[in-house]
Amino acid sequence: MEEEPNEIDAEGYRELMPGVRYKEIESGKGEQVEYKQAVICSLEGKLISCGTIFEKFERKMLRVGDGDVPPGLELGLRQLREGTKCQVRAEWRFAYGEHGRPGSKEENTMAIPPKAQVEWSIKCHRLWFREADETMTPAEALEDARNKKILGNEHFHHENWRKAASNYQDILKNLNPWNYQEEERNEAETLYVDCGNNLVIALIKLDEWLKSERAVCDVLTVAPENKKALYRAIQISLHLSKWPESQAALQIAIEKWPNSIPFREQYKTLQEHKRKYKQRKSKISAQMSKQLITPSSASSSSALSTPSATDFSMSTATKQKDLSQKSWWWWTSVAVVASSAVLFAALILV
């Protein structure tokens, strides 16, 4: 059931929530977009303060609920039907936040300054499949993966590593290159490997080395001699001090690319790590041996120091006290034994 629209202001906008306003320029037709459904749209973003256009896309796929766009734009997307043309205005809290967003030459986008209020112009061309829809053909699933890669690359180039990683992980989870034949399989493998390699970099940027190790293994399963994947595998295993794995990957890489300077540099790094490890190990062993053989100076000086007169008197008093206590216990024991003997004799006489 659709919500009742809020009151429209003088500029033709209605408030979706405090800080986000929506203006419908052309009405769409059919059903309103649903959660996790993809929207194929044209998109233009500009800064309200100066009118500068910071990004423009003629065709872009966005899936409602995936969190690939700022909250203000997400709310606008949820209003769409096929053919809808609209504008969404958002305060900085629901746009690109306190720090803004860096620009990207690869994506042809401009930097967004901190705390910038923005406006998006959207035209919905059509509504597409929901996420992982079972009715998708292999070709449509491949198209879905292509679109997710575009979004992942966009986040990657804007240095939003976590969102980029999320998109690439979705692709690797849902795309199985072995489900395709001939040309489509080649494209699926290339897509899988490219997204996997980018995922590895994003996870390294997030300092999630163990996850990056699993991701690079996934890539090498599909493409065992992929140059980028082998380089990252060596980098990760060196960081995790897994030298046998580094050695194995280096052997494959140097046999395949014997004149590669990056791999040669990694080989030198591996040898240097091993050398430093041996030095540390020898140093620790020497320290442990020294501690076991040589007593500490404090205990030695304490054991060999001559007692003072005060220490002697205290020691004597302590010994006398112990002796008196022992004597008391001895005489008490004698008395008890004697009493027991008398009692026993009396019983015999009776």
UniProtKB/TrEMBL annotation:
The keyword Nucleus does not apply. InterPro entries: FKBP4/5/8-like, PPIase_dom_sf, PPIase_FKBP_dom, TPR-like_helical_dom_sf. Keywords: Isomerase, Membrane, Repeat, Rotamase, TPR repeat, Transmembrane, Transmembrane helix. GO terms for cellular component: cytosol; endomembrane system; membrane; mitochondrial envelope. Pfam families: FKBP_C. Signal peptide: none annotated. It catalyses: [protein]-peptidylproline (omega=180) = [protein]-peptidylproline (omega=0). The chain crosses the membrane at residues 328-349. It is an enzyme of class 5 (isomerase). Its EC number is 5.2.1.8. Residues 36-128 form the PPIase FKBP-type domain. GO terms for molecular function: peptidyl-prolyl cis-trans isomerase activity; protein folding chaperone. This is peptidylprolyl isomerase. It comes from Aureoumbra lagunensis.
